[in-house]
Write a structure and sequence with these properties.
disordered C terminus
Length: about 475
């Protein structure tokens, strides 16, 4: 793999982004522990459009973070944002990027011509960060505890002519970016797994996003009324997305084998008294499950696969996933089924907690790669999703979708940057809770009815069981 990769659009027209005699651009980033993927858009490019410039930074090559400088608020801006903006505007003082581009397969792609940087240039930025964002700041624990401070970046008027053009720098959690990305999905990019099929149901109501990959991410979106920019006399529904650490709630075993696995993981993780769902439902979780099964049933090990697993380092989950397909009865297959049971159960629990009548979206890298283990009413995922006892009927009113694309984080950062641009220019959707409530009474009535029905089911179940329980 090359140190960096570059993708450019073939469009060179950037004149349509002028407003109030200013030139507006959107700067987005998908920032993880290993890579920082930066993109620049014309502010008026539609969602889903190719960026004017994209560059994928290998952090270890560009960010010289140490324990001594990790709290420097300039470090990320000067190491990643500044070189990227210099490259976008053809500053020759950028040898590392120019060298990486020259040696890449994209070297021959025509560069768009940007108007010269000036005091009329305004950059609105949204950075999706792999960490907990508080007060527009984040400590990147998987990048040397590096501090990234959006407030500092957007108020830095003195460092250089590039950074000072950034008038807004909003940091969001990387999974919140996936939540915003769900708002950009087209019908052909999802598969409906359960619930009502009316396409209009996705236009209103709360939404939930749950996605397993390296870890298990969760977030939720709430709707509010907004004025349509295209049709000011009509109302539309906009969404705000909120972070969650729901992937770290306690895992509950469902049978004797899973109880043994819980005890095994207790010992593995120093007997903390709890095991989080993420220890089971993730790429690492899949490896954890296989390790337990290999110890519990050594006679079922495939020697070649087990040797590959042991040598795979942090790719152990991938080894299990690849070898689970078309191998019923194998340890890899059984590990996948256990993970899918826990995954479906957790998604169902999220559905009960939020009653997301606007849809619950199953995202993350594991979804498209393992869709054959997820879809179908006989899959362990769906069976566990629906296994919610007395309140299971609620799930019939909640659309459940599997997301088949893996670029939601990039798309979500673009969506949020676009929202910030509209707010900055005074064209943002205006929250008007009372009007939204009035115009969406039908949807809210549906949600209320579902909750009322659930209450009846629970109360009747309790009464028939003598008031104390009995029915689950």
């Amino acid at each position: 793999m090359s140190a960096s990769s570059l993708v450019r659009s073939s469009s060179s027209s950037c004149s349509s982004n002028r407003l109030d005699n200013k030139e507006y651009y959107l700067l987005t980033g998908d920032v993880g522990g290993t890579n920082s993927r930066m993109s620049l858009y014309d502010a008026n490019q539609p969602l889903g459009a190719k960026p004017l410039v994209t560059f994928n930074f290998r952090n270890q090559l560009f960010v010289p973070v140490t324990p001594e400088n990790c709290d420097d608020p300039c470090l990320f801006a000067n190491s990643i944002i500044l070189p990227f903006l210099k490259y976008c505007w053809d500053d020759g003082d950028n040898e590392r990027i120019v060298s990486a581009v020259a040696n890449s397969s994209q070297a021959s792609v025509k560069k768009p011509s940007l108007p010269p940087l000036s005091n009329e240039t305004v950059i609105i930025s949204c950075l999706a960060m792999a960490g907990v964002v508080m007060n527009n700041r984040v400590k990147m624990t998987n990048l040397g505890n590096l501090l990234v401070d959006g407030n500092y970046i957007q108020h830095d008027e003195e460092s250089n002519e590039y950074i000072k053009q950034i008038k807004v720098c909003t940091l969001i959690n990387d999974f919140v970016a996936q939540g915003y990305g769900c708002l950009t999905l087209e019908d052909h990019e999802v598969r409906q797994l359960y619930g009502p099929t009316d396409a209009n149901v996705r236009l209103v109501g709360p939404k939930v996003c749950v996605g397993a990959g390296t870890g298990l991410g969760e977030c939720y979106l709430t709707p509010y009324y907004s004025n349509s920019l295209m049709h000011p006399m009509h109302s539309t529904v906009a969404y705000s997305c909120f972070a969650s650490e729901g992937g770290h709630v306690e895992y509950a075993p469902r049978n004797q084998l899973e109880s043994k696995m819980w005890e095994y993981l207790q010992n593995k993780f120093a007997g903390s008294g709890r095991i989080s769902v993420e220890r089971i439902v993730s790429g690492v979780g899949l490896a954890n499950i296989y390790e337990f099964l290999a110890q519990e049933f050594p006679e079922k090990r495939d020697s070649d696969i087990h040797a590959e697993f042991e040598a795979a380092g942090d790719e152990k989950g991938r080894v299990v996933g690849v070898n689970a397909t078309n191998r019923p009865g194998s340890l890899c297959y059984e590990a996948m089924q256990i993970m899918m049971t826990a995954y479906g159960s957790e998604v169902g629990s999220c559905a009960l907690k939020f009653i997301p009548t606007g849809g619950i979206y199953v995202t993350g890298g594991l979804t498209p790669k393992n869709i054959h283990f997820i879809e179908g009413h006989d899959s362990e995922f769906i069976k566990a999703y629906l296994h919610k006892g007395r309140v299971s009927p609620i799930l019939e009113q909640i659309p459940l979708f599997a997301v088949m694309v893996e670029d939601l984080g990039v798309r979500g950062a673009h969506k949020k940057a676009q929202d910030c641009y509209l707010e900055h220019t005074g064209r943002a959707p205006t929250t008007a809770t009372g009007k939204w409530l009035a115009e969406n009474a039908l949807t809210l009535g549906l949600a209320t009815g579902i909750g009322f029905a659930a209450g009846l089911l629970v109360s009747r179940g309790g009464a028939s069981a003598g008031g104390g329980g009995g029915r689950l």
